[in-house]
Amino acid sequence: MRILVISDIHSNIWALDKVLETEASWDRVCCAGDLVDYGTAPREVIDTMRSLPNLWLVKGNHDVHTVNTWRQYQRGQVKPQDYKWVHHNCERLDEERIDYLDRLPEHLVFEADGYEYLMQHQYGLSYEVVESRYQFEEYWKRYRKETREGLGRRMIFGHSHRQCIHVLKEDCLWLNPGSVSYRRPDDPDKTAHYIVIEDGRIMIKQVPYDRSRLLQEAVGFQKRQEMMETEIQDFYFFFGKAKTSRDPLPDIASFSPSKEGGQ
Question: Within this chain, do residues 50 and 37 fall inside the same structural domain, yes or no?
Answer without folding.
Answer: yes
